[in-house]
Each structure stands twice: as C-alpha cells, then as structure tokens.
Amino acid sequence: xxxxxxxxxxxxxxxxxxxxxxxxxxxxxxxxxxxxxxxxxxxxxxxxxxxxxxxxxxxxxxxxxxxxxxxxxxxxxxxxxxxxxxxxxxxxxxxxxxxxxxxxxxxxxxxxxxxxxxxxxxxxxxxxxxxxxxxxxxxxxxxxxxxxxxxxxxxxxxxxxxxxxxxxxxxxxxxxxxxxxxxxxxxxxxxxxxxxxxxxxxxxxxxxxxxxxxxxxxxxxxxxxxxxxxxxxxxxxxxxxxxxxxxxxxxxxxxxxxxxxxxxxxxxxxxxxxxxxxxxxxxxxxxxxxxxxxxxxxxxxxxxxxxxxxxxxxxxxxxxxxxxxxxxxxxxxxxxxxxxxxxxxxxxxxxxxxxx
Length: 356
Ligand SMILES: Cc1ncc(COP(=O)(O)O)c(C=O)c1O
Description:
alpha/beta, Aspartate Aminotransferase, domain 1, Aspartate Aminotransferase, domain 2, four-stranded antiparallel β-sheet, 14 helices
C-alpha cells in the first residue's frame, strides 16, 4: 500500500473520503503542541488540559468538561456515570454507541440496550414513551436515553433544537437522563447556523470529538454538570484514560475549538457539490437529508455494481470511499478535500458507470 501521509500531508493523488478522522493537525496545532505548558493531569495539574476543559465546557454551555482519549471513551464514561448495572438504555438501532462501540454498554456497563428506529436520524418523544415499560417487577428500569447529532449512519442528519428540547422534556418528565453523542455536533450547529448551545442546552451530557472535522490529532470532550463530570472522571481512570502530561495533545484541541469550527461550512458546501454532481450519474442515488452536512450516503445499486466492487474500482484510481452496505457507499468530506477533488470524484463515477 502507498504511504498515505508524506511530511504530514495527504499523499498526492489520493482522495480520501473514508472519514473526517483522517484529517491532519494544522501547523498552528503543531506549534501549540510543541510549546504547551504541561503537568500531571491525573493530579489535575496540567494547565493546558484545564484550559481546554474550561473552554470546551463554556462552548457547549455546561458547568464542567473532561478531556478523553476518544469519542468511544467519552460515550462510555457518560453511560457509566449516568447509570447502574442492570438498567436499560434507550437508543437508536443505527447509533454509534449501539453498533460501533464494541458492545461497551453490555460489556462495560452491564446495561440492556432497548433500540428504537432512528433511520431518519431522529428520535421522537413518542418513540421513547412507547419504549418505556414502567415499574413492573419483571422489567429492567430504563434510566438513560441517547441521541446522536449529527447522525452518522443516516448520512449526517441534523437533529434540530426544537426536536431535542421536546425529547428532553419527555425524557426528564419520566425521570430519565438524556445523553448526546455529538461527535459532529459542531457540524450540526454550523449547518443550522445556530450557536451549538441551542443543541446542547436541553441534554444532561454531550460528547463531541476534536479529532474529526475539527482536525485535532486525538481526543474528545465529555461535558455536563460538575457532579456528573466528577463521576465520569473516575470512570475515565477505570478505563485507563488517566493521562499525564497530556497538555501536548490538549493544545491541539484548543486550536480546534478556537479556529476550526466555522470552516466546517466549506465541507458542507463541498458535500452539496458532490451530491449534486453524483445525482447526475446514471444509476447513482444520493441519500436525501434535512440539512447537508459532511456525510453522504451514495446508493450505487442502480449501476449494476455492488458497493464493495464500486469501492474497489474507485480505490484503483486513488479514490478511497468505504462501502457501508452491499448497495451503499459512505463518503465523508473534510479539510483535505478541495473542489477539484470533488469534480474528479464525479468524473470517475461517470467513467466507472459508463465503462462497465
Ligand atoms: C457518531 C459517532 N460517535 C462516536 C464516535 C467514536 O469516536 P472515536 O472514533 O473517537 O472513538 C464516532 C466515530 O466515528 C462517531 O461517528
């Protein structure tokens, strides 16, 4: 396989649309990392981590925040801190927490998952009400609901502030907590053109990733009340996430929050350009969404090729797009993708379809 990165930049000729996690740290991040003041963060003595956590908490309008290794670890700390083993968590059947976090709910939390239909990226109050089974002696008590914004597997769909508020009201009236897997919550806020606090205010906790479209090399944030974050901090330690002079990494996270949010709009605009172009290719259908963020689901069934085969043909010419199912590819726009790359991808799709 060809080296993907050369001198910290994506290799010439490869258009990598597998994920926004492939983004490289910016020059400003590298400089901030090199000069970050640090200390032992397990003793709470790393000034750069503290700065990041304060900045992050303020950004999403919460009392406190915790710097964690990954989105998966942040979500795990959240469900561990919100629940007791033997309880039930209500969440989408296509959600990342349920499907792509190694069964941590069961393995780490001793939790039952009660899944509901989130195929359009949204969980509605009536679905939660229907999923709640009440206090009968036989039932595991449900204590937590999780939502995902933007919603990865439905093509980056956005859950809007009004829908989150309505859900939170129902969840709270029934005495449960609401956690948001907001790995890409800044994409949602930018797409809507609202402050991210409009999305995060109604939820009890939110996790978001610094390492995806925001381009930091490592790390995510979990935010919530002081008391919740104190509990989550203990679970982070349990999971082996107590890091020492980790300000060297947190420094990049500060740059991510200060400089990299607004530019997500460019990724969304290129996602639209790609969606519009691919829609003209015979047999190709691009999934509709309420707002175009940075993820596209591309149905290639009508081309006569399976998605894995389509993906293989794209890869031969340096375009990396993963299949999501037998019929659908998932493309993710990010900082290293230019307009000319988008045009090239559209052209190659045309060639593959016409040439087979
Ligand atoms: C919606 C969502 N949540 C959580 C995660 C987990 O993040 P990480 O890869 O940092 O563990 C991802 C990663 O792709 C994601 O897309």
